[in-house]
Design a protein that fits this description.
Blueprint: E1 4-6, H1 7-13, E2 18-26, E3 32-41, H2 44-54, E4 59-63
Antiparallel strand pairs: 1-3, 2-3, 2-4
């Protein structure tokens, strides 16, 4: 069964992890509101490898912690 979790549930369950979310529902600013968690890991590269393997049709990758100083996000 596919369970949709809210962003806050994802953040609480997978603290400081990278999370691959399928079918994310977003707000007007494209912030993820909820979705189905496909996988999660402390290792970002593992999430990207899994995304290439699974090839979800519509997905988002989230980081639920505080980014390290000097890290950048490219949209």
């Amino acid at each position: 069964m596919r369970e949709y979790l809210s962003f806050f549930e994802i953040q609480r369950q997978f603290d400081s992890e990278w999370v691959l979310v399928e079918d994310p529902q977003t707000d007007e600013a494209l912030n993820v509101k909820n979705g189905v968690v496909l996988c999660h890991s402390k290792d970002r590269d593992e999430i990207y490898r899994k995304a290439r393997e699974i090839k979800p049709r519509h997905s988002a990758i989230l980081y639920t912690g505080i980014l390290p100083e000097g890290a950048a996000i490219i949209l």
